[in-house]
Amino acid sequence: MAKICVFCGSRTGHNPEFVRTATELGILLAKRQHTMVYGGGSTGIMGALADAMLPLGGQIIGVIPTHLARPELMHSQVADMRITADMHERKALMHELTDAYIALPGGFGTMEELFEAVTWAQLELHSRPIAILNTCGLYDGLIQLIHTMHREGFLSERCLQLLTVCSSIDELASWLEKSATPST
Ligand code: AMP
């Protein structure tokens, strides 16, 4: 099965739908026996995802830098926790371990990780599929901005196609089915 890197918030957000859909994704990943690669946190959407997978025996790899590897932040139940020297090493390892990327709701950290993955795809440094889950329209403004960049000539048609936008867990499940293939 594939290894799926999930970028997501260290906070839950206000709308309970954010946690609910993260929980649904965690259940889906565990049931389909995908391995989740994530930031190793116990808080926010990160914690909700891991908490949904663990009771189902889901495979999780946490990748966390030393400065965040504190008991109040790092998930204590994730057995395979890789602790890196810094953020650069963390991101390099997450990329190395991954077959596909998903971004769930989050803030600056999630955006930075997502756009690094998209930029590296744009530069043809990898060809892994990338999707975002636009729960409750959180990313409507971002999607609009991306289309404006395309219209104004800053993004090619090929670059526009690098990011798949899903508006429900069902859409994300179908995308996973056809796009996320395990590396050999
Ligand atoms: P944000 O979207 O700003 O909440 O940042 C989330 C991203 O930043 C996660 O994907 C992690 O890579 C990283 N991050 C922020 N806080 C933590 C934390 N407490 N534990 C682990 N990773 C974190």
What does this structure look like?
There is one protein chain. The protein has helices spanning 16-31, 44-53, 87-97, 108-122, 140-151, 157-160, 169-179, and strands spanning 3-7, 35-38, 59-65, 80-84, 100-103, 130-133, 163-166. The model has no long low-confidence stretch (mean pLDDT 96). Helix 2 (44-53) links the parallel strand 2 and strand 3 (59-65). By secondary structure, the chain is an alpha/beta fold. It has a 7-stranded parallel beta sheet, with helices on both faces. It has 7 helices and 7 strands, in the order E-H-E-H-E-E-H-E-H-E-H-H-E-H. The chain has a single domain, classed as Rossmann fold (3-Layer(aba) Sandwich), CATH 3.40.50. The chain is globular. Helix 1 (16-31) packs parallel to helix 2. Residues 7-11, 39-41, 43, 64, 68, 73, 106-110, 113 line the site of adenosine monophosphate (AMP).
